[in-house]
Amino acid sequence: MKLPVELKDHQQDIFNFRLRLLISIVFVLSLLGVLLARFVYLQAVRHDYYQTLAEKNRISVVPIIPNRGLILDRNGRVLAHNFSGYTLEITPSKVKNLPAILDELATLIDIQPRDRKRFKKLQAESHNFETLIIRSRLSEEEVARFAAQQYRFPGVEIKARLFREYPYSEKTAHLLGYIGRINQADMDRLEEKDMLANYRGTDYIGKTGLEQYYENELHGQTGIEQVEVDSAGRAVRILSRTPPVSGNTLVLSIDAKLQEIAEQAFENYRGALVAIDPANGEVLAFVSRPGYDPSLFVDGIDADSWKALNDSPDHPLNNRVLRGQYPSGSTIKPFMALAGLYYNTRSPSVAIGDPGFYTLPGSSHQYRDWKKGGHGTVDLFKSIVISCDTYYYGLAVEMGIDNIYNFLSRFGFGKKTGIDLEGETSGLLPSQEWKMKRFKQKWFTGDTVSVGIGQGYSLVTPLQLAAATATLANDGVGYKPHLVREVRNSVSNETHKVENNPVFNIKLDPAHIDLVKRAMEAVTRPGGTAAQASAGAPYTIAGKTGTAQVVGMKQGEKYDASRIDERHRDHAWFISFAPVDKPKIAIVVLAENGGHGGGTAAPIARKVMDYYLLGKEPGVNRLITPAPVPASGVTEVEAD
Amino acid sequence: MTRRELYQRLVAHLDLPLLAGMGLLMLASLVTLYSASDHNFDRVLSQGANILVAMCCLWMVANMPLHYLLRTAVPIYTLGMLLLICVALFGDISHGARRWLNIGVATIQPSELMKIAVPLMMAWYFEKHEAALTLKNFIVAALLLLMPVALIARQPDLGTALLISASGFYVLFLAGLSWRIMISLLLAGIASAPLLWSMMHDYQRHRVEMLFDPTQDALGKGYHTIQGMIAVGSGGVFGKGYLNGTQTHLDFLPERTTDFIFAVYSEEFGMVGNLILLGMYSFVIARGFVITANASTYFTRLMAGSITLTFATYAFVNMGMVSGILPIVGVPLPLVSYGGTSMLTLLLGFGMLMSIQTHKKLVKS
Question: Which residues form the domain of A525?
């Protein structure tokens, strides 16, 4: 740039300056233009978009969790309810040094190593921004102590929550199941059913048992509160509110007292008991022993407790009623007898001679009767009373597996009963087709022999056997066993009764049924395999004992309970119903490793019947003492 | 008679059109501040006090004859430089930057003083060498600008450094810096951008990054920009109404009474309000340009032009950053944002403008 060193031209100078000033004005105008364009863009063109963002900033939809429905027994006793309590909760993402914070919290609130382990597991299972429970059921004092120190613990807060409580704890664990924290799998399932929206804010869902099966009834409708929030997420005011609708109340057919009495009657035995009202399929008692404490699962179980439950040789988590599959043993005989009559394979009057074993034509293999030397002359009636194996070996072979399969499947064997619980197993009713599929082998006549006495391939669940027994008691008219009697609407209090329509009717000759029932009645009298069972009872009891082998025995080996490890002892069965003429209750008892049905299982059933039919509680007011063992020496023991 | 005389005496050196424009903006400030502070009347009163104090200073400067103003340039600049050096050596650190100096009775921010002192010093320098300006003079003037700018940029206070650079550059531009040099400087500037980038502090880089994509970290670094844009955009054409801005009152907007007050205004008064605000600013700026055009001496022309352009720049940068076209640099909205220091600096500048306008008249008459 060349600058004049001489005296400046003043006019030129002014002109130059004004030119630059003009350029400056243009510059400023263009800046204003840019701003103007920006305002038009943001406030006119994109207004809707930013309006939406501002509303999203402002309005937060807060779900209001509905109260979960109650579960009551048939007499209105509470089996599951909610109580409010305080929990101490941590949002891991808001906490810098979690272990240190936990240590410090432990000085204010009792936090056990167990709580920490459980929290760790929870943390691994959930997102970092979720709020997780470290301690529940805080005492008032603990709440007060923490509240005073809360400022020291950002990310830690006390919340009031509703807790699920099961007053009967392990006694109803297998029946009710439990609720637990919603996990990813639950979320996926809910999403599939398009129900995720209703679970906003809900932390728990039914995991097993009735809690799971009736989740839709129990959960209720989540309410919504539209809240204006500030940038910190604090609610400023409520814009609108849709109240939640509590879940419906389930009224079960279960009689809690009966359930308790059944539990106690088992004493130390593991096993299962199902009591059904034959007239409508209502399940009166549903016992699987041992049970477990369902509250352990509600807030996530800690690893130690889980391991203890899972590794226990008693398998407390196994729902034996629903999922336990056992050989039916001799309890199948009344059904086999009905089949024999139905197919005309055996007439009531025909008797066989029992040498104590059965051999197939052209074979030397001996299928032994449980009684060495046999029972002598045995007709159909006697075959049930004394549980003659030889009679049924022959009957089964003569009837053939196809007929056995067809007849027994009508009673529901080999099929799920369709009870209102998830996870039922179907047992096993073997057939030619099944064997071919399973073993790629054709059916041998030898396979049929053991099916005749409920051994071999066949397996039943206690529930199946109970449903079949109820159907037998009800003269072949079968109901689907069910646990829920009615669903009570939480708002209108209207009740919706579960319909009790028979699902099948096996057209049987009344004379056949009567014969079998009378034989079963004789089982519980002196001379029967459960000779003590009806002793002193003012009502009649029909029953059948059974034994399920846990370990097989070699040909010629003798079963000796005392020599065998307790867990290898036979399982004891007892199926029964009473009164015989107009059955009000059908009961199936399985006592694992109980040995003999008549000795262990039948007394349990009797106690339950006494309470149900007479209102008599066992133990303290024992008015009727069992009759002494009849001197006739007919053993109530049976073994195959 | 005496009353009238007193009034005459009071307003003799005030430029009434400029005062009227400023007054409207200050009114807008008080009104918006009441909303921005969530109905905190104390905040409004405090800003009123800021205005009052600054107006007194304005009055004094406006009544100062020009030769007197000219004489203050060197002492003020020297004092400012000394204070900046003190800040660099013993300043208080707040928010990771060393900007404040504790002088016992109060803490001061010397960089604010330099907003006036730098253009004043440069204009003084050009006035002194007016008769024969050479390239050397421009280089010296540029050094007078770059020394304080470097110190301020080191604090680090990039926003103020850039704005002072701008006001100094306006002086250079109006003084007649050749186009060729400007263009080559511009090219050199573009070429050195990567170098500048490498010298920037992390938080400054983030602010620039966020400008290009604020959604990258909506709850972190981009939060200010996004919330500002939401406030402006959701205001729409007519605004949400006074005291009804949700972004403002639900605490989503950061720095609502200071740097982001425009978002509050814009949310509640909408595009129409923005046009009115731009109108007010345009009026003040236009008046500044008129004064500049009529200025009688070389010094006053440069000074008035720089003050006016700097004011326009402040307004543009602030509104630009709030509405998301410029990075967040921490520049208040002139005359509207809450704050005593920036009010004082601005009104000192306007005082000079008025002095330039009114004393010229007196000289002429």
Answer: 258-292+322-614
